[in-house]
Specification:
Rossmann fold, 19 helices, Zinc Finger, Delta Prime, domain 3, Helicase, Ruva Protein, domain 3, single chain
């Protein structure tokens, strides 16, 4: 029997949960489907976040033939079969999983079919396509990042599966307690497939009560997902409350509180939330006050990913202690947010002519790159010249802080360069 997650795959764009930035009304993929002007694309993001579902929904909404292959395990012969079908039927949507593992032979065969539009390629990958996918494929596709689903998105899909009598579990006399629904939607880090698999296991392995009702309680959900609920709270906010308290404890330099909240997360099996949050904390809250601590945090989380639980707790504990006692600075995030605020408010301006690309014939006639001063030709490898657009030539985004031993030195050099620039 096909797994519940497979059976519940959407057949139209409207059935997709989450990813509204891509498939919501008026958004890019929705517009492609509506106009039937599909282009090949790469969807990248964590497992269970809807890459295959989006591909299936696109095919269902457009009524094009839909085929699924794996770049690692399927052969060039399999691609040839799809290509022959495309020649006969006109257009085939091909979902190519693990596209980052596509070898050159298969790629060279596939490229002409992408060019003529017979095959609409939807590549799926968990790897960053800008790093892991060949430029020849990238140049012929649009790249869309698929985000982990929110608990609300997962809850919608879980409840839909319980009531669906055709593809879901609706034929069972099933009662899922609210706290079990909340746990299943909050505890898989946005992985809908894992949530559906756990729900199906719970439904199929739980005996009905005297009234013939299969009751899915929180302990049953925990057992089937092999995780513990951090706490039982009716609103489902507890998980995010713990993550929030974890970051705020490190930011506030309370080592014992930070270790306590990390222990709660690790005890629930949520290693990924700890890893992601530590990386954010390192660069958001410590940053330039102690850059080496940021580097050691990256090393610690890398070790934790290789080790897995329970050993992962060891390098993570070291990182938490160092980040907690470290001097703090949020000047980096404040600086980029200030720059982004100008962009969002329309303060952009033209790139100065002397900074524009001059590596093409006729650039000099347009004034591109003329009068650019190459800093390495001057003493101390520096020369004063304007880099910001005219509209923003006096903008300042970085405000140095005096915490720690490193950033004050950065700040002194920043001020010297800024004053010299403006003086000249």
């Amino acid at each position: 029997m096909q797994p519940l997650a497979y059976r519940m795959r959407p057949t139209t764009i409207e059935e997709v949960v989450g990813q509204q930035n891509l498939i919501g009304p008026g958004k890019i993929i929705s517009r492609m489907v509506k106009a039937k002007l599909l282009s090949s694309m790469i969807l990248y993001g964590p497992p269970g976040t809807g890459k295959t579902s989006i591909a299936s929904a696109i095919a269902g909404s457009t009524k094009y033939a839909f085929r699924m292959l794996n770049a690692a395990t399927d052969s060039k012969k399999d691609l040839q079969i799809v290509a022959e079908e495309a020649k006969m039927s006109g257009t085939v949507i091909l979902l190519l999983d693990e596209i980052h593992r596509l070898d050159k032979t298969k790629q060279d065969f596939l490229l002409p079919h992408l060019e003529n539009g017979h095959i609409i390629l939807i590549g799926a990958t968990t790897e960053n396509p800008y790093i892991s996918i060949n430029p020849a494929i990238r140049s012929r596709t649009q790249i869309f990042e698929v985000k982990p689903l929110s608990p609300d998105d997962i809850l919608v899909a879980l409840k839909r599966s319980v009531t669906d009598t055709e593809k879901g579990l609706g034929q069972l006399n099933l009662h899922v307690y609210p706290e079990a629904f909340t746990f299943l939607s909050n505890s898989t880090n946005g992985d809908l497939r894992s949530s559906l698999n756990a729900l199906e296991l719970a439904a199929q392995s739980t005996d009905p009560d005297d009234n013939g009702i299969i009751n899915i309680t929180l302990p049953i959900a925990e057992e089937c997902l092999q995780k513990k609920a951090i706490t039982q709270d009716k609103d489902g906010d507890a998980h995010y409350d713990v993550i929030s308290a974890f970051q705020k404890s490190i930011r506030g330099s309370d080592t014992n509180a930070a270790l306590h909240y990390m222990a709660r997360l690790l005890d629930s099996g949520d290693l990924q939330s700890v890893i992601r949050r530590l990386l954010v904390i390192a660069y958001e809250d410590i940053g330039l006050a102690n850059p080496s601590a940021c580097q050691r945090t990256v090393a610690a989380v890398t070790a934790a990913e290789h080790l897995g639980l329970p050993e992962a707790r060891i390098p993570l504990a070291d990182a938490v202690i160092e980040l907690t006692v470290s001097p703090k600075s949020n000047s980096g995030i404040s600086a980029i947010d200030a720059a982004l605020a100008d962009i969002h408010n329309g303060k952009i301006g033209d790139v100065p002519d002397h900074l524009r690309d001059s590596h093409y014939k006729g650039a000099a006639k347009l004034g591109r790159g003329v009068n650019y001063q190459y800093p390495h030709n001057f003493p101390n490898d520096w020369i004063a010249q304007q880099y910001l657009p005219d509209k923003l030539k006096n903008a300042e985004y970085y405000v140095p802080k005096s915490n720690g031993q490193i950033e004050p030195r950065f700040g002194e050099q920043y001020e010297r360069l800024l004053n010299a620039q403006r003086k000249n």
